[in-house]
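Table S2 (text version). Query chain:
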Amino acid sequence: MKLTTFWGENLNPDCIGCYVGDETNFQQGRICQTKFWNLGQDIEIAYPGMLVFSPLRHIFSFEELTPDELQEWQQLMIKSKQAIREIFGCEKVAYAFYESSNLHIHFIIIPLHGEVKIKDKYAIIRELMDRADELRKDQQNLQRVFEVLAKMRQYFAKN
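Corresponding structure-token output:
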């Protein structure tokens, strides 16, 4: 899978989830890593606060998650929502889940903070994917992504 992050990294891993979960890779976008999960800024779409939760082991399907992985995921989701509330002052988020027969599952939280205008919050993933190039080229938006990433790291380091 060929992919260029908005940091300019050219990636071609067999599995992007496994690549990101390897703690020797992807330092720019990582917020934290727990026993079972990697939490980071989405690497394709430069949307401030768009968080991706990826299990550290290669999992194709939700039902493959262990009770310990599910419990830790739930705690990370709650903490992430609290961080979003503190950083953006917003309560509303969109949740997305991606599962495919050949791909690493991941979960996404997208803060609905209004910094990037969204036309259809019910199709937010599609809209953001369609606007990825525009968001990557907007220097003010990229600066905001980096600021939010730093604040997320601070939040998770102290909480």
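Notes on Table S2: The longest strand covers residues 103-111. The chain has one domain: 3-158.
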